[in-house]
Design brief:
It is a single chain. This protein has 114 residues and is an alpha+beta fold. It has three helices and three strands, in the order αααβββ. A three-stranded antiparallel sheet has the order 1-3-2, with helices on one face. β2 and β3 form a beta hairpin. α2 runs antiparallel to α3. The longest helix has 18 residues. It is globular.
Length: 114
């Protein structure tokens, strides 16, 4: 029975695992830094690259799509939407909003089974 559970987890999109990867990537890249306009491009690239690297190290049979948005906390609104046509049994997504005193970072990961 345990072997089956391990095999099942290896082929399904586990939101908790992905959420942890996202959180670690953001913390490693941005950490306690204050919002700096001239660093946002580098931060978003680093967050996305770290997420992809860590997700592929999980060794699961997925293609990943990762997006990141960093926004200064200044009272402005941000509305986003996404839609996917996929297999709910194998594919999945995870979106995480992280914030500190000066900015928000919103990362979405889509996992598509190979």
């Amino acid at each position: 029975m345990d072997d089956f559970d391990g095999e099942e987890e290896a082929t399904t999109f586990v939101v908790d695992d992905v959420s942890n990867v996202i959180k670690e990537s953001i913390e490693n890249t941005i950490g306690g830094n204050a919002y700096q306009h001239n660093k946002v491009n580098q931060w978003t690239s680093n967050v996305v690259e770290q997420c992809l690297n860590q997700l592929t190290k999980l060794g699961r049979p997925f293609k990943y799509i990762v997006t990141a948005v960093i926004m200064q906390k200044n009272g402005a609104g941000l509305h986003t939407a996404s839609s996917c046509y996929w297999d709910n049994a194998t594919d999945g997504s995870c979106t995480l909003r992280w914030e500190n005193k000066s900015m928000y970072c919103i990362v979405s990961v889509f996992g598509l089974a190979i």
